[in-house]
Write a structure and sequence with these properties.
With 153 residues, the chain is an alpha+beta fold. Helices cover 29% and strands 30% of the residues.
């Protein structure tokens, strides 16, 4: 995929976390001027997260069109020792609604959050639905940037 980039945005006045954002998925898959980009949030700057964003972009642009409420297996822990081995595509709650919609020359990109989750949480979502999983996350008060958080399911 030529033209794909991963932007790394450091902590600032609105967040104490690092954001990793794809740039180029929109151009590779847009239809009618609309397409997707993805963001991941982490407490540290690490090349691992750039690689994961590249994996997401390759998966999405390679024919597995991700969208809101979809998930993707990583095939290994988010970081060594983490139970999170899947990514859940969700609204960018940590960044606020202004990040979700991005105007581009010739169209519009929707930026969705890739939240690291556990296999048990994905199974819970399969049985009970996406909304039920999000309610479970809220009730458990998960820290979505903690790679060592306990599974909510």
């Amino acid at each position: 995929m030529s033209g794909l980039r991963v932007l790394v945005v450091g902590p600032g006045p609105r967040s104490d976390c690092w954001a990793y954002v794809t740039a180029g998925c929109w151009a590779a898959t847009e239809e009618g001027g609309r397409g997707l980009e993805f963001v991941m949030t982490a407490r540290v700057r690490d090349q691992r997260f750039v690689e994961l964003m590249g994996m997401i972009a390759y998966y999405h642009c390679g024919g597995h069109q991700l969208d809101l409420e979809h998930s993707m297996p990583i095939g290994e822990p988010w970081v060594p020792g983490s139970e999170c081995d899947h990514l859940l595509v969700s609204l960018p709650y940590l960044h606020g609604p202004d990040l979700e919609h991005c105007r581009l020359p010739g169209g519009h990109a929707r930026i969705l959050w890739t939240l690291p989750v556990t296999a048990a949480e994905i199974e819970f979502r399969r049985r009970r639905g996406h909304e039920a999983l999000e309610r479970l996350f809220d009730a458990a008060e998960i820290d979505p940037t903690d790679p060592f958080r306990a599974s909510a399911a």
